[in-house]
Amino acid sequence: MNKLIITCAISGAEVKKEHNPYVPYTVEEMVEEAYQAYQAGASIIHLHVRHDDGTPTQSKLRYQKVMKAIKKRCPDVIIQPSTGGAVGMKRDERLKPTELFPEMATLDCGTLNFGGDDIFINTENDIKYFAEKFYEKKIFPELECFEKGHIDMVLRLHKKGFIKDPLHFSFVLGVNGGMTGEARDFHFMRESIPENATFSVAGMGKYEFSLAELAIEYGGHVRVGLEDNIYLEKGVLAKGNRELVLKVVDIAKRYKREIATPNEARQILRIEER
Fold it and tell me: Which residues of the chain have pLDDT under 50?
């Protein structure tokens, strides 16, 4: 079985210090959280950036500053900027981090009702547009799928040539408006992708570690982090991203899955050298 790739989503765009004081806002906080996660075993840092007051932004300059600082501290780590941005942002605003030519980024593959009047819009034309920009810049896409219909969209666009091999999926489960994070949901998603595709699982809130264990057991990869879950266990706040990554490392040991380094992650995902 392949070594385990751990992605750490260190901040997100929605969770705040009021929820957990370790959520990073400033450049210095972002770098420290990324470094601690990397030291614990994360080979990919999934990155949203904030202004110092915690307001989410897709500013190219802010991403540039944070990414440069993380790379200085963790030279070989894979930085994976989000192109999800925040609800209401337009296509080109969401794509701003891709102007920095990261080796990898997330590509959202369907629309979602986030709750209330919030709709996270990703039309078919949005997905085609994003994919085109990714491949122009030789950015490896992580295909974020919040439910089975999103996988079907990817496979349809793959057949038409808009999305290309190799395919790497991220099952983001437990989000309001998407699929829940029960074992049946995991297996339904896992069994719906091509055999030669790779996948990672991000479980929201209470689903984080139960889904991490399923992914480890069935040969997939794992995303954890304060973006997805602020608790180490029920009622116990995580003291930073490091603790969440270390808990996954402990689960992996039970299944004898070794942890991939960033360069090993590149090989497993078949990310081309640039």
Answer: none
- Domain assignment present for residue 130? The answer is yes
CA dihedral 216, 85, 158, 224 (to 10 degrees): 0
Q: Sort strands 118-120 and 112-115 into parallel, antiparallel or unpaired.
A: antiparallel
Q: Helix, strand, coil % (nearest 5) of the chain? A: 40, 20, 40
Q: What is the CATH number of the domain that holds 116?
A: 3.20.20.70
Tell me what pLDDT residue 274 has: 75
What is the rounded CA–CA span in Å between residue 155 and residue 151? 6
Is residue 1 assigned to a domain? no
Task: Answer whether residue 96 is part of any domain.
Answer: yes
**Quick check: 86 and 120 in contact, CB under 8 A?**
no
Q: How far apart are CA 200 and CA 215, in angstroms?
A: 7
Number of domains in the chain: 1
User: 3-class DSSP state for residue 146?
Assistant: coil
Q: Is the peptide bond before 166 cis (omega within 30 degrees of 0)?
A: yes
Tokens (6 digits) for 192? 């719906």
Q: Does any domain span residue 262?
A: yes
Q: Please report, to the nearest 10 degrees, the dihedral formed by the alpha carbons of residues 121, 122, 126, 132 taken in order.
A: 140
Which ranges of 41-170 would DSSP assign to H, the alpha helix? 60-73, 91-94, 124-136, 148-159
* Count of C-beta atoms within a 10 Å radius of residue 236: 10
What type of residue is 16? K
Distance CA 160, CA 168 (A): 17
Q: How far is CA 102 from the centre of its chain?
A: 14
**What is the domain range of residue 265?**
6-269
The per-residue pLDDT for 1 is 80
Per residue in 126-140, pLDDT tens?
999 999 999 999 999
